[in-house]
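It would be a great kindness if you could assist me with a short task in structural biology. The full record is reproduced below for your convenience:
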Amino acid sequence: MKLEYYSIEKLDDPVFSDLFEKRKKDLEDAAHRHVRHVLICNHKGIDLSLPCFLQPDDPAFAMPDKVIVAKTIELLLELNPDWTKDNISKMLGISTTGSNRLINYWLKADNGRDINKSNWVVLATKAGLMQLVVAK
């Protein structure tokens, strides 16, 4: 989509003003549809209002607990039925040897190793739980 800049005087032009208002309404409608979709979709019981689904540079961002990581991996495997933990490991660029040892460490409650931020963002984004926004 091409970004165009207009002066405030353009809003006085009736043709431009009508086009502007129509485009604004279309964007607002699309945003409302997206919000409704997020609210009615079953994301395996994952609460998308948790701070781990905020943008990573947001001051309120927090890393997920092991339960959320496990549910996210379950969701990703459900969305991609032919995938295994090996596919997830390859996607994240981590070793697939040792029965996906690193992923299993992230999931075990009695283990102190947690998922790192970059892998969490990729995992949550790929599962459709987060949309990464890159600011200029």
About this structure: Residues 46 and 68 are 7 Å apart (CA to CA). The two ends are 17 Å apart (CA to CA). The helical segments are 14-40, 66-79, 85-92, 97-107, 117-126. The chain has a mean pLDDT of 83.
